[in-house]
Amino acid sequence: MDINLTYNVPMQETFGTYIAVYFYLTGLSAGSFILSSLRYVFGFEKFKPLAKPGVVLAAILLIMAPLALLIHSGHPMRAWHLFVFINPSSPLSWGSFLLTIYPIVCVIYAYFMFKENAKMAKIMGIIGIPSAIFVHGYTGVVLAVAKARAVWATPIMPLLFLVSAMISGIALMMIVCAIQGYFFSKDKKINSELLFTLGNMLIWIIIFDLFLVVCDMLTHYMGHKGGIEATIHMTTGFFGFTFLVVEVFIGKIIPMIVFAIPGLRKNWIYVLMAVIIMIGIFVMRYNVVVGGEHIPLV
Amino acid sequence: MKAIKRYGMIIDLTRCTGCHSCELACKLENKVPISIWRMWVKEGVKGNYPDIMRVYLPILCNQCDNPTCVTVCPVKASIKRDDGIVIVDPHRCIGCRYCMAACPYGMRHVNPLLGIVQKCDFCLHRVTEGEKPACVISCPNGAMIFGDLSDKQSEISRYLAKHRVTVLKEDTGNLPHVFYVNLDGELADKKGMPE
Fold first, then answer.
1. pTM of the model
2. Which end of chain B has fewer beta carbons closer than 10 Å to its terminal beta carbon, N or C?
3. The pLDDT of residue A213 is above 80
4. A33 in Cβ contact with A129 (< 8 Å)
5. Inter-chain contacts counted by CB atoms under 8 A, chains A and B
6. Which residues of A196-224 are buried (b: 16+ CB within 10 A; e: fewer)?
């Protein structure tokens, strides 16, 4: 039978843009930390120019990220409550500790790296990689346990977040590589070999990310009523344009194809694609956070 | 020894006429700011002309037995009392709004003046004095029945024994303690704003 609502109350915005910004910044931080650890932990000499800017950016971005949380929170001066009244069942409670430990690890790691103490840097990097994964992975858990929202409440949300963090981190490192080469190197030349290697890495990570996105949407679409509603909302509904066109097509598929074509191996094209990817990942965070809560519950 | 109380509510929709007086009484009693509602009456029109029917659904916090908001609160500001009422400690809440995001019923709101999250607490200040919540008092038809579910002689327990009741979104496993008689499932499932 047809039913039409004649009176209802709109829902208030809960997480909104600030939390999307926060997720974006922690993702960039985790991604750039892992890129910077490639040299000192895994021993890939090729990535040496990225090690120092990577860890500095990781620390700075992660110090910036909680500022977005403070702006979003209604009572920023009560932030100390998070460390005194601990609720072990709440992912936000774990996050308050992860957000404290991770920048400290970053700074110590950076200290040993700048002191050229490779052995201690490796040890701190080994501690740092799991904390980078946790500090960004927990934000996926935060969304995944909010069981009311079908877009968020999926177990692969933390993995989806980590993979997109890697994408945005590598894209950021491509821009860093270009800026470093163009402005700060002796011969004012961009290290094209490194740029193209990072682009090659991105092809495979974007393929994995697209696979996860398709899995997510498909299981939602074949799942329960809320999941079907969520898929329709994200593909043909209100967020269809930002999700399918901006995030998936412009932000992921076009850069992937460009990186795969050998004829397009030019510095400026790669840097342009890196900027597009970074915008695309921000739109992805926005789609997940704001798009997820845009579906009304009542 | 005094038995532990468990407060609950039955809303008999065969008696509800959709007058919105509960909504108004709640807003006046709890000084809820403008543009925010702690409880309201969702309204719908069912069917095609001339076979048409208006349906009503008063909704408020379900005071769940397994509340998601209490699980996710990072500072333990959301508390489930022994008598089953879920409250927010106004001095501890940091206004992170995670509970609002996690509540399957969307029944929490952030107070723009105070910066903290608030919710329906069955008018706790009245209940502790032995009074009934404002919405229950205001209902002209006696559609809302409030009381102690663990007391088998109370009005609500006797009403519950005689009627078949349903709850909203049973599949979430939150075990709500606001029961509905003659709930219209289609109205409960229809979400969003009127077009």
1. 0.93
2. N
3. yes
4. yes
5. 158
6. bbbbebbeebbeebeebbeebbeebeeee
- The yes-or-no verdict on residue A216 having pLDDT over 80 is yes
Give the tokens for residue A127. Answer: 């501690």
Instruction: Determine the Cα–Cα distance for residues A191 and B80; give it in Å rounded to an integer.
Output: 59
Q: Do A62 and A105 meet the contact criterion of CB atoms below 8 Å apart?
A: no
Distance from CA of B19 to the nearest CA of A (A): 12
CA distance to partner chain B, nearest, from residue A292 (Å) = 10
* pLDDT exceeds 60 at position B1: no
Please report the pLDDT score of residue A118 as a whole number. 86
**What is chain A's mean pLDDT, rounded?**
92
Task: Please say if the pLDDT value at position B55 is more than 90.
Answer: yes
**What is the model's pLDDT at position B2?**
65
Contacts of B175 in chain A (CB under 8 A): none
pLDDT of residue A77: 93
Give A-chain residues touching B55 at CB under 8 angstroms.
Answer: 3
Nearest CA in chain B to A225: B189
Distance from the first to the final alpha carbon of chain A: 19
pLDDT at A282 (0 to 100): 96
Residues 15-34 of A with CB under 8 A from B: 15
Reduced to 3 states (helix: H, G, I; strand: E, B; else coil), residue B41 is strand
In Å, how far are B6, B62, B176 from B81, measured between CA atoms? 9, 14, 15
CA dist., res. A48 & res. A42, Å (int): 11
Q: How confident is the model at residue B29 (pLDDT cuts 50, 70, 90)?
A: very high
Give me A284's structure tokens: 């992805």
ipTM for the predicted complex comes to 0.89
Q: How crowded is residue B119: how many other Cβ atoms within 10 Å of its Cβ?
A: 21
CB of A111 closer than 8 Å to CB of A140: no
Chain A from 104 to 133: CB within 8 A of any B CB: none
Does A224 score more than 90 pLDDT?
Answer: no
Using a 10 angstrom Cβ sphere, with 0-12 exposed, 13-18 middle and 19 or more buried, the burial of residue B11 is buried
Look at residue B167 in the predicted model and tell me its pLDDT.
Answer: 94
CA B73 to chain A, closest CA, distance in angstroms equals 6
What B110-114 contacts at long range (C-beta under 8 Å, 24+ apart), as own/partner pairs, is B110/A12, B110/A74, B111/B33, B111/B36, B112/B33, B112/B36, B113/B33, B114/A74, B114/B90
**Cβ atoms < 10 Å from Cβ of B50:** 5
Closest C-alpha among A267, A77, A66 to residue A177: A267
Residues 6+ positions from B52 with CB-CB distance below 8 Å: B45, B46
Please name which of A222, A221, A245 lies closest in space to residue A233, comparing C-alpha atoms.
A221
A7, B103: Cβ pair inside 8 Å? no
